[in-house]
Write a structure and sequence with these properties.
The chain is α/β, with parallel strands linked by helices. The chain has 20 helices and 30 strands. The strands form eight sheets. The protein has an eight-stranded mixed sheet, sandwiched between helices. Helix 6 crosses helix 7 and helix 8 crosses helix 9. The N terminus is likely disordered. 5'-O-[(S)-butoxy(hydroxy)phosphoryl]adenosine binds next to helix 12, strand 24 and strand 25.
Length: 639
Amino acid sequence: MIKKTISQTGLTDVLLKEKQLYKPSAKTLKMAKIKNVPATLKAAQKDPLKFWEEAATELEWFAPWKKVFEDRHKPFYEWFVGGKCNIVHNALDRHMDTPVEKKTAILWESDAGKHRQFTYRQLHTAVNKMANGLKMLGVKKGDRVATYLQNIPEAAITMLACAKIGAIHSVVYAGFSGNALATRLKDGRVKVLVTSNVGHRRGKVIDMKTVCDDALKQCHFVKKMIVVRQNDDLVKMKRNRDFFYHDLVDPQSDICKTVPVDSEHPLFILYTSGTTGTPKGIIHVHGGYMVGVNRSFQWAFDIRGDETYWCTADPGWITGHSYIVYAPLMAGITTLMFEGVPDYPRPDRIWKIVEKYKVNILYTAPTLIRALMRYGEQWPKKHDLSSLHLLGSVGEPINPEAWRWYHKNIGHGKCPIIDTWWQTETGMFMITPLPATPLKSGSATFPFPGIEVDVVDSKGNSAPAGKGGFLVIKNQWPSMLRGVYKDPARYKKTYWNKIKGVYFTGDLAHRDKDGYFWIQGRSDDVLSIAGHRIGSAEIESALVSHPAVVEAGVIGKPDEIKGERAKAFVILKKKYKLSESLIAELKKHVRSELGPIAVPSELEFVEKLPKTRSGKIMRRVLKAQELGEKLGDVSTLAD
Ligand code: WT7
């Protein structure tokens, strides 16, 4: 079945050779909201605050802001200061009693092909009921509510219900283990956890409730658990702690007031990996986030209001927050949620769904494109994909071969590919084409209007065209993170103190002579495995928590489908002997500490690891040796 393989090595060389410009089609240009991209960029650059203030007026506020931007407490920036709003008012309430009310808000397809849908009115009702249910369990403004759910409508309903009453949601990806869930519940001092009895994947039933029960053994401050019933299997429920979603929610009133909150009131915490073993709780707030997310979605995807839109991400990642739930609902369009996987039951599942629901905009990740490309173009050919008019990409650089396949076989040469570069921390697209931007395959093109991006050396000097460097953002933007939960020092150190005066993204990039940005990957030890962000340090600390392991060094290696995969170099304690069963046990251990996505595909047992004189493992040296590259500067190496 597998037809092709993709050579990913030398990606940068291939990118540098890409000279062809893909000009927008006449139809794309005709539809484009922004026809003159350079002029728009220039105007926004001249006065970004004016640009964002104008963007804010597209949404509804309970009370206007007194000041657009405040930098008194650098780097704790504030936006739309003094304003009162609620993102749920814009995502749902304001559509009531308008023609949008009757439109489909959420279309959902399950792993098994079951279907559910909600109009805007029905979703509004469901959210009100859930919000009342949360209130009944004692949830108040500012309290944290976590979810551990697959991609099902209740995931979106819970997020919206929290936001509606000013509670803060913390969505935990359902692929994480019970331990990883517990770490996040503890950091956020979460009051209520929402999960389901089971999940579904490739036709198999996955036990979710037991994972949560295990996590709660370490988290006694989580007072209540709400359980969505996904099937009729018996579930063990703890008295006075566990409630079935439907028992709690169905009897509630369908009226619930949306709480006006301060622009700077936290909307959610979302954990993301960094260079240490503990994930960072990234904070986003109502006001600036809704403005940035709405404007970027409307412009980059040319939203007119009648689209059926499908983002294949999971609500557990920022993409799911910003561009499955909040942006499409604020825009009043139909957002599709899919519980399953791309190649089950057959490799045409994605294309089948596009045809079935007449999807207009498909937003997905290079790893998915590469995986489906291997099955061959006969699979998309079985389906009518003519409803598509725009394609999106996110998560990692899209290699030109995958870009061209996507462009030709899915977009039939007519759809622009909007390659959006951004991060959990940025909340919204930062570098992205607009539909009228001439494209180069593999480049995310230019900064979004109002965003000032640069490539610099370690001292902050701009790099000349063609020369690589650190990707930084030189100004502020409304949907920027407001901090790391309970750790202001880490916020300053990670993002603002690496290079003076600018936001440090952690990515490497270069700009070509036409000003196009090319993202080359991370400068730090953060891996992107099938678009999932995992830190080397996190996997290492999971490994050393096993009694057999003294030390571990983890690096990323190029992978044809997943972009990257993890390899671990492990030093064993003397009394342990290398064996297949020990390898299996260590993999199992990482799986239970972090979850399946973090399990290294390769383990190598070594006597020693390259270290600096101060004892830090030099992963760079491990990587260079593994890939047969030059070692570079090794003057700090101890041995
Ligand atoms: C990191 C952020 C943003 C939602 C998904 C990931 C990489 C993201 C692109 C792109 C090249 C990309 C970067 C970034 N990345 N989009 N279009 N081209 N690289 O969010 O988990 O916060 O990861 O993903 O390395 O720093 P995240």
